[in-house]
Amino acid sequence: MHHHLINQISHFIKLSDAEKEWISDRFATRRYEKGDYFLREGQVCREAGFIEKGLVRYFVTKEDGEDLTVDFNKEQEFTCNYASFLDHSPSNTSIQCIEPTTILCISYDDLQQLYLHVEEGQKFGRLICEYLYVLAIKKVDTIYRQQPEQRYLQFLDRYPELVSRLPQYYISSYVGVKPPSLSRIRKRLAT
Amino acid sequence: MHHHLINQISHFIKLSDAEKEWISDRFATRRYEKGDYFLREGQVCREAGFIEKGLVRYFVTKEDGEDLTVDFNKEQEFTCNYASFLDHSPSNTSIQCIEPTTILCISYDDLQQLYLHVEEGQKFGRLICEYLYVLAIKKVDTIYRQQPEQRYLQFLDRYPELVSRLPQYYISSYVGVKPPSLSRIRKRLAT
DNA sequence: CCTATCCGTTAACCCAGGTTAATAAATTAC
DNA sequence: GTAATTTATTAACCTGGGTTAACGGATAGG
Questions:
Q1: CA of A181 and C1' of D16: distance in angstroms?
Q2: Is B189's pLDDT higher than 90?
Q3: Burial of B88 by CB count in 10 Å (0-12 exposed, 13-18 middle, 19+ buried)?
Q4: pLDDT single digits (tens) A19-49
Q5: Does B68 map to a domain?
Q6: For residue A86, is it within any domain?
């Protein structure tokens, strides 16, 4: 029984004991080394994941080969490229493990079964999507309203724990600037 | 009976005739003049709308009072600040009618009733949210990967019809630059 | 312990968009 | 049809991040 997973789902809907068992059985445990990919850009994201342990980053690759880190997920969070997962389109992002990571995975078809089989399954699907939607919108808002300097401050505020788990160039990429520029920002802030 | 509305919903789920009637009855018709607000920043978005006729723009207001246009919706599209609507939080965007506009409105509670009362109601809630999610993600992607010039070209491509319905400064705001800069972009492209 | 590699900072120069203000064009009002 | 207002363009100057390359510190491997 995947307790962390069941606990997270239980934040959204009520589950009977039988349903907890049934759900646990749909998830397969996958282990990844640092640097391994959960998903590569261009692939269809066929499984949704729940991070049992570890840390992943999402990035897009520009035409010139540069990659831009757009998000992070850590233990006790769900991970997948939801847009690709939903409509079986090629993913526009890669998801890479940047620590040794354990992910519980469920296939698209099994998740659809979950929506049907579990009493409040459809509601869970709706709520999880609504949750992800709100996150996505906040992201848009951040990009629209904030300067790189503010985004850096916000990153420090929101992910204080990740600062020590991440190399600086992932942070600069997340903030939307190049490493030299993040250095300048840090210098400005230090005064 | 609101036929346009029912048609749109029928793209997502099957509806019985009785359900079509029932749904139609939950929506109230509201009319707006050019410049009127469907929603103001800071208010909670308590109704979801379906635009029968007209055109609205979404904008956020920065601390310095400047507003940034983040999206448009036109006839036959749903409109609301979904994040605010979902969790009753103050909206971070305003929605303003920029043409005389007719909107069919349903309250939050009635929509929850719809999820329960209509056979495939929960599924509709999930699918509409998944649809909005994919749109939001595309928006993030656009901001991340594209320069203002590319966003302008994409705007021309995606909303050719809106070019003539919108003043230029809404377009420049949507593209993410100031009017003088959009002029420079247009000049560059003209050569 | 020394070397090679990686990473973060710094400097110099470049460029796109911001800012401000003036002007021209297009709408709207009367 | 003319005046008033709003909107679009242009010019001059400013600013912050990009680019490239050099340097220094840290880390890892031998």
A1: 9
A2: no
A3: exposed
A4: 999 999 999 999 998 889 999 999 999 999 9
A5: yes
A6: yes
**Which residue has tokens 């250095």?**
A183
| Cα(A189)–Cα(B141) distance, integer angstroms | 29
pLDDT of residue B191: 67
B187: left (phi over 0), alpha (psi -120 to 50) or beta: alpha
Q: Which residue minimizes Cα–C1' distance to C16?
A: B181
Give the three-class secondary structure for B49. strand
Count of domains forming chain A: 1
What does the alpha-carbon distance between residue A114 and residue A120 come to, in Å, rounded to a whole number?
A: 9
Domain hosting A109: range is 3-119
Does the beta-carbon distance from A70 to B144 stay under 8 Å?
Answer: yes
Which ranges of B52-97 would DSSP assign to H, the alpha helix? 82-87
Nearest to B86 among A68, A130, A176 (CB): A130
Cβ atoms of A82 and B133 within 8 Å: the answer is: yes
Q: Which residues make Cβ contacts (< 8 Å) with residue B115, sequence separation at least 6?
A: A123, A126, B121, B122, B124, B125
CB < 7 A contacts with chain C (nucleic strand)? A 167-169, 179-180, 182-184, 186-187; B 147-149, 176-178, 180-181, 184-185
| CATH number of the domain to which A25 belongs | 2.60.120.10
Joined tokens for residue A23: 């759900």
Residues of A at the B interface, defined by Cβ within 8 angstroms: 60, 62, 68, 70, 82-83, 86-87, 92, 115, 122-123, 125-126, 129-130, 132-134, 136-141, 143-145, 176
Q: What is the mean pLDDT of residues B31-38?
A: 92
**Tell me, what's the pLDDT at B80?**
95
Long-range pairs, A163-171, Cβ under 8 A, ≥24: A165/A55, A165/A98, A165/A99, A166/A72, A166/A98, A170/A57, A170/A69, A170/A98
Please, what is the average pLDDT of chain B? 93
